[in-house]
């Protein structure tokens, strides 16, 4: 399948590396031979209908340059949207930065792809949180596949678990830790008695948190993922505006000590029952949701099967790239191919 | 789809209840309308080509009788194998008791079904641990579906998780707690300082352990499940004889105290790396594998994505029945139907 990739951040770079490394493996196991025919970054695009050279793409990014500088294939200044209308790709991988305050550009990429009959894999959460119900309808109308398993839990197959559970049972509700940064901060505050500011600084030093940590500590990232989950798994036509949200910025250390005294720990829990909510909540110390460090955890409450919990890394370039490959394999199989 | 069910234990009774309760739901969501056309217990069978009455089947079992006593449809003394050759079912659900020492009868059921072009859902582990590679080949040769997700983790979709992980990543190895009874016993010994005999007696009182607890405490049940997992997920043509096995019967309380002093806990771990092995092993107290009570946990070691762990109940009639329904929905969809 021919791929167009918009955005050249750490997920895309890990994906390109993996596509090169696993070329023979993907063909052997699934009969799948992906080819990258278009890429775009902030400087422009590179397009070649018989496939771009992955080592050249990685080398130019390694040097801090734009793919549009590549001789013969580079197109400086070409927008992502123009790339989609002018290349021959069958699948768009939307991997531009997730900007909750400005999802329009990425939304435009998805809409353009759908209307041109392209399947879409999005690792960008922002357009999904803004308009997932409308996007799913547009994909269905154009009879194309729309996958986004890398948007929640990175490589951990959260959606697959939930879909499998829903096939035989009924998902009544969800409680989840969907943001590793805040879990790391709360874990440091509980287990090492760190102050909030020190735990945040440590998370920033380790690369878990951004210089501006608002998206994590105000619960925006978790709320975005919760919206996607609620749409896909619980059939709620929800958007970001439907989530009640409380972050951990103002967390009172006394509240943590009180929880500890009761054999409990404070976690930033994203929950979906009657309402959609992100807020600090207590969990028992032996609860499967009491995960350490920057791990994520999703716990489904089932009608017959009780609680089922999936724990894994919730972030990372290579981890998220495996979700893109999983989506690609799924699209390939759903449109009627198998090895 | 028309179902033949062999075995009328607690899983079958929960399944019948669920098929009755969820009839409209399954039709609405999947276009699936299962009908039970044959059942068998130790006393004989009941067969009716347009469908047996579920309330009547449940009532006769409630009274402690055999389905073969049902007027008009009962066939005293008819064997499971004869049922399969004489009914019109498209799917066999093999739910006779799992007997590792005598898997032949259940093996015969599966083989007969395959050779008559029936799809098979097995919740019976014994024939699978004895001969899974040969059974999978026989199913493939006869071009029928063969599902057994209820054999490992009851309703927890362990195989779905592993298959989804394997699609985008590579499963390098597995560490798992596949037996809830031994986990309960070890948990009691660790957290309440119970003696082995007392913890076992308590597990028996709660219905977790049988009067003869060998299958659990000698690691036989866990080894059986490990074999199934290794075949399906890791592509190993293994049988029960390939598993190194050490149970918890002779466990030294001193070993538990030493583990605790090092911040660790002893668990009966089923692992699949170079070799297949079931043995008591230590895990860190904050490891996702340190699950409490009778929970099960499966941890996959992935090439790119690190550890992914799924935690859920590992036993129970209704739980296992949801796995049968999931398998049924999967078969229905794989043979080309959707709602």
Which ranges of chain A are low-confidence, i.e. pLDDT below 50, for 5 or more consecutive residues? Answer: none
CATH architectural label of the largest domain in chain A: 3-Layer(aba) Sandwich
Would you count the extended β strands of chain A for me?
13
- How is the largest sheet of chain A built, in terms of strand order? 4-3-2-1-5-6-7
Q: Looking at CATH, which topology of the largest domain in chain A would you report?
A: Rossmann fold
Quaternary structure: homodimer
The level of helicity of chain A is: 40-55%
Distance between the termini of chain A: 14 Å
CATH level 1 class label of the largest domain in chain A: Alpha Beta
The ordered H/E elements of chain A are: EHHEEHEHEHEHEHEHHHHEHEEEEH
- Could you name the CATH homologous superfamily of the largest domain in chain A? NAD(P)-binding Rossmann-like Domain
Radius of gyration of chain A equals 21 Å
Described by strand count, sense and barrel closure, the largest sheet of chain A is:
7 strands, mixed
CA-based shape of chain A? globular
Structural classification of chain A: alpha/beta
Please count the helical segments of chain A: 13
Taken as a percent bin, the fraction of beta residues of chain A is: 15-25%
Mean pLDDT of chain A: 94
- Please name the two chains that share the biggest interface, counting residues whose Cβ lies under 8 Å from a Cβ on the partner chain: A-B, 42 and 42 residues
């Amino acid at each position: 399948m021919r791929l167009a990739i918009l955005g050249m951040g750490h997920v895309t770079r890990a994906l390109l590396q993996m596509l090169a490394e696993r070329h023979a493996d993907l063909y052997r196991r699934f009969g799948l031979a992906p080819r990258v025919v278009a890429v775009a970054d902030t400087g422009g695009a590179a397009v070649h209908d018989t496939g771009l050279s992955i080592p050249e793409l990685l080398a130019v990014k390694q040097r801090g340059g734009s793919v549009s500088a590549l001789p013969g294939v580079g197109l400086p200044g070409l927008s992502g949207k123009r790339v989609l209308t002018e290349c021959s790709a069958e699948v768009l991988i939307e991997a531009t930065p997730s900007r909750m305050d400005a999802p329009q550009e990425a939304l435009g990429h998805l809409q353009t792809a759908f209307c041109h009959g392209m399947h879409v894999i999005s690792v960008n959460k922002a357009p999904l949180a803004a308009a997932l119900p409308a996007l799913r309808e547009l994909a269905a109308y154009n009879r194309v596949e729309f996958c986004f398993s890398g948007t929640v839990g990175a490589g951990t197959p959260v959606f697959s678990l939930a879909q499998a559970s829903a096939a035989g049972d009924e998902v009544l509700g969800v409680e989840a830790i969907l943001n590793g940064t805040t879990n790391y901060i709360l874990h440091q505050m509980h287990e090492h008695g760190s102050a909030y500011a020190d735990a945040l600084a440590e998370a920033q030093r380790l690369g878990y948190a951004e210089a501006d940590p608002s998206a994590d500590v105000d619960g925006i990232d978790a709320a975005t993922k919760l919206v996607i989950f609620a749409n896909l798994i619980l059939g709620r036509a929800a958007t970001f505006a439907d989530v009640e949200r409380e972050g951990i910025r103002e967390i009172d250390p006394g509240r943590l000590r009180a929880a500890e005294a009761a054999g409990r720990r404070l976690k930033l829990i994203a929950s979906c029952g009657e309402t959609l909510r992100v807020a600090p909540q207590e969990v028992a110390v032996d609860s499967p949701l009491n995960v350490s460090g920057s791990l994520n955890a999703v716990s489904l409450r089932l009608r017959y099967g009780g609680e089922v919990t999936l724990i894994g890394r919730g972030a990372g370039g290579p981890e998220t790239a495996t979700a893109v490959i999983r989506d690609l394999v799924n699209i390939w199989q759903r449109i009627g191919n198998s090895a």
